[in-house]
């Protein structure tokens, strides 16, 4: 931009220095960052900015660790609680499994904002790598835990280290822009469903290996620690991800590249002077922005509902047919969860890029939220099928035709739930767009993830306890109380999601 007046020699020197800095400025150490700056300046072509493929691949590899470590416990968590001999009443297992699952999210809530703030001070890279390494250690600890307190402590430690999720989201926001996020975000979004395939498969196949693979694992150690093997495998993946990130992940924070603070070039005004770069906004200021506030509230609802469905589905599958479930074992539950992950991958890979380019993000988010009630309403239908075609209800043995119908029903319900879960990927874009300035991206992601994790900390215990309470009754309204309550919560979440579009209209950035 050329100034209207004749600047002084000092001012001209300042501008020339800033321009040289802009030419050399590359937050990822490659040419795509320079192209990013040029494309976002409003000049040049409408072509998408080239994606920094190496950094995106590294980020995806690091991101994959969390869902594997988080989901590998799901197929056997109810079996683990039974193995600890906490209660003789199998219908009460859900109370303890919900407590274990909630402990992870509660610890994550405590640490998530602190990790986000720390990453603004010391950089994204060390926070991400330290968190991934800690997840590996906590997963190993889980594998050798033989008491309820030990299991909960291990999950709490894992939750504390997993609080860096907002930082990982911030890295994605810093290496992409609005021209290429329709491609980059779905690719990044593949990490969770891919981990949701690998994790449950590992948990279902490798848990209690002594009777499954006696030729290799029939030893006193694996009989005493029947859940060590899947935890060990998940920990190895975490350590490998940490090592890979250490060698290949670059610092993305524009002020802290190359392990030292660097100044961001100042914006030149029309009068030849320079505007100081923005500082991170305070939490109070961010929550005063309507769209940020709406995203936090709706994100909390989304997280509560999605986590509640995942927990309910696993416990529903584990519950006996006579009590309203499917009587699945850990391996079958692992297969079902892996189907869910596969569906997510297909949706993220083939549908998400088109949908993000074709539809308004806020409306798409609202549509996804509107699918959640169907997930809960359709679940009891699987039990009706199982009751109708059960050969041995106590053992959970079904006639072949009935079993096929049950699995088709599972695929349909999981397809709806994974379509609804696309709201998480859309939410990441909405959060990035709602940040008042680039310096506030980390904090904005932090408070959005804090709201999600806060609701997720209550959801497992609430959903599993509600289901455990309901299945103890024969009266139909009480037996399916869990369906009624969760459906009402879903409708509330849909109502909250409508506020995002309203908030964007009121926001100065919209």
Automatic annotation (TrEMBL):
Membrane-crossing residue ranges in chain numbering: 127-146, 152-173, 185-207, 227-247, 294-321, 333-355, 367-386, 406-430, 477-496
InterPro entries linked: MFS, MFS_dom, MFS_trans_sf, Tet-R_TetA/multi-R_MdtG-like
A family per Pfam: MFS_1
Highest taxon listed in the record's lineage: Eukaryota
Subcellular location: Membrane
Biased composition (Basic and acidic residues): 14-23
Broad class of the protein's primary localization: membrane
Protein's UniProt name: MFS general substrate transporter
The species this protein was found in: Trametes coccinea (strain BRFM310)
